[in-house]
Write a structure and sequence with these properties.
The structure is a homodimer. The first copy, chain A, has eight helices and nine strands. Chain A is globular and about 60 Å long. Chain A starts with 7 loop residues before the first helix and ends in a 12-residue tail after the last helix. At the A-B interface, helix 1, helix 5, strand 9 and helix 8 of A face helix 1, helix 5, strand 9 and helix 8 of B. The complex binds nicotinamide-adenine-dinucleotide (2 copies). Chain A binds a DNA duplex through helix 1 and helix 3.
Chain lengths: 219, 219
Amino acid sequence: MADQKIPQVTAKRLPLYYRYLEKLHAIGKQRVSSAALAEALQIDPATIRRDFSYLGELGKKGYGYNVNYLLQFLRDFLRQDEVTNVVLIGVGNLGTALLRYNFYRSHNTKIVAGFDIDEGKIGMDIDGVPVYSMNRLKEVLELHSVEVAILTVPVSAAQSTTDQLVNAGIRGILNFTPARLNVPSHIRIHHIDLTVELQTLIYFLKNFPTNESKGEQNG
Amino acid sequence: MADQKIPQVTAKRLPLYYRYLEKLHAIGKQRVSSAALAEALQIDPATIRRDFSYLGELGKKGYGYNVNYLLQFLRDFLRQDEVTNVVLIGVGNLGTALLRYNFYRSHNTKIVAGFDIDEGKIGMDIDGVPVYSMNRLKEVLELHSVEVAILTVPVSAAQSTTDQLVNAGIRGILNFTPARLNVPSHIRIHHIDLTVELQTLIYFLKNFPTNESKGEQNG
DNA sequence: TGCCTTTTGTGATGATATGCACATATTTAT
DNA sequence: ATAAATATGTGCATATCATCACAAAAGGCA
Ligand SMILES: NC(=O)c1ccc[n+]([C@@H]2O[C@H](COP(=O)([O-])OP(=O)(O)OC[C@H]3O[C@@H](n4cnc5c(N)ncnc54)[C@H](O)[C@@H]3O)[C@@H](O)[C@H]2O)c1
Ligand SMILES: NC(=O)c1ccc[n+]([C@@H]2O[C@H](COP(=O)([O-])OP(=O)(O)OC[C@H]3O[C@@H](n4cnc5c(N)ncnc54)[C@H](O)[C@@H]3O)[C@@H](O)[C@H]2O)c1
């Protein structure tokens, strides 16, 4: 498979394409061109074609892309029909919001459990997701075959919690804390630093008041 | 000023440096090398030196960087002593979490108001931040000189809300909805798509089980 | 003082990503 | 059937970043 060759930026755009194709499918659209996708997603059409070209020759010249075919292809490629179970550590302000949202409704990802050290939270059920004590971490991860954790604890608890996660066999962490986590090299970490995002936006506004440059890739 | 020449990625890392320097300052550290910063922030030391070099010659050979000096320099450069007022549209799950967090405690950014259409929410006070009806948008933006909005409404309301924001004179939007917003070219938008972040993490885990590659820059 | 060590700032190179521009293939209309 | 219109896939130029590697400068120690 072409997997090994896909640029990181492309991998980040594929879910975007997938989501939009679902929408097109839902309204009965049969075909779509890179130009139409470009318009809707605000990505250059050549970039879109290049992205798809990494996966194979998915389109037809003079026609464009068949929505059903492309959708199905991406579904397989992104393994959208396998449900991935994840857990969330730190059921506070942000953690609760993410739990409530859950990603399952529209996606293939499901938060199956929350964890906290606050006795008041342990035992709660948030929109169907149970909150456990941290000492049940390993047990629950194994039960649900969980390999990915969302980390929304206070920054002071970030490293110790991460150590516990690594110990319990996690492989990937989506880190919302500002901490730079130390982990063995086989663990993958993605950082989402909302404070930095906000500050960066403000920085650009203050320093490039008349913004002609294209927006960068965010999220 | 060197402003015009700073790469986007550097601009995103500056707040990171600033935050860590504050920490060093707090524990009384006087000097720091790019190697030490690299270790703590998990960024290549050459990248750090290059980043600083865009701002001037801030270090001294054989010595490193003076923490106080660098901190003060970045404070000025990032205008960390000017408070930037922002508003938040859509006081739901995510919006409430962001409001509660607020960025003011440790940063120069303050959410001064929330907005919603839900009658049950209008008039509320969330940790000191009032929630207004959407028809008071222009008035409140002007009162507090707000130019930046955080958007956390349902995706269905994203474009119409954006139009209202643009109309009311906003210049930058931090967009948490999955919608690709259409705005005049002078408006700057940063997207934070949490679903895509999670999916991308999972994609990389599934496809590169033994991850040797460095993690990319995320937020 | 003089020598060795440390560490910067940056030229050079390599890696990754974007987007133009067009040959090519296919559709659509007449 | 033929021509015109459409839209892909990709070579190539350009842009943006990351990192190596080292001369040069400054510190620190004997
Ligand atoms: N809330 C936001 O909008 C926001 C924005 C930017 C960054 N963040 C970051 O996200 C993280 C969470 O923020 P928050 O506002 O939800 O904080 P919070 O205090 O509301 O929630 C933290 C939760 O973690 C739990 N916790 C504490 N120590 C723990 C431990 N050792 N193990 C397990 N659980 C533990 C607490 O009981 C609490 O429920 C913080 O690191 C914060 O910096 C949050
Ligand atoms: N909650 C999450 O963790 C999460 C994760 C990923 C993405 N998102 C995105 O963030 C957005 C908000 O998510 P949420 O879970 O907080 O939703 P939510 O339904 O809890 O909150 C949305 C809020 O917006 C208000 N609102 C609706 N229409 C409005 C309008 N026209 N003008 C002003 N306010 C309006 C609603 O009254 C509600 O208070 C959504 O677009 C969602 O896709 C949320």
